[in-house]
Amino acid sequence: GDHILDTFLTVTKALSVATAGDTIHIYPGEYTEIFPLTIPAGVTVKGHGIRSVTIQPTLATNTNDAFLLNGETTVEDLTITGFYSPGYAFKYAPNYTARNRSPYIRNITVITQGSTITADDPRGFLAGDAGKGVFLDGSVASSTSANTALLFHSVTFITPGVDAVILTNGARVEWLNSFTYFANR
Hints:
Layout: H1 11-17, E1 23-26, E2 29-33, E3 37-38, E4 44-47, E5 53-57, E6 67-69, E7 74-81, E8 88-92, E9 104-111, E10 132-137, E11 149-158, E12 165-168, E13 172-176, E14 179-181
Parallel strand pairs: 1-4, 2-5, 3-6, 4-7, 5-7, 6-8, 7-9, 8-10, 9-11, 10-12, 11-13, 11-14
């Protein structure tokens, strides 16, 4: 896990041993993982490129959230796909704590679709069960958390027929060069 010739087979395994200050480098490919993937505080998950790294759930976990974030985490340079409602691409982990900085999400594409696709509805908008973008709930933060914020930079959410971004209970977001497509609202 700590050398190019000694890699872990799954992102899940890498996350299970990562500690603050570690960067998990994901090589090009399609990764089928057990969702949710909880990122420990201070850990970076970095794909080789937005179009070359795809993370999707197993069939049994395709309605779960994709990534659960802790403070000082970073997720960048990858695509998340293949999950359905009620799952979100990003949420705070239970008892979320940010001591120095909020999570940073950069160069990410979230591509979901509804379960029923037709020629008139190629993204499954009318199905209303596509995976969702982000749900930030400030009430899950610990009382010692410095903030309940998140920074998105160059993130695209394709979430047909469902809500792309929900912020509640004091959560806030910095939204730079990011987009939503086909969202309900």
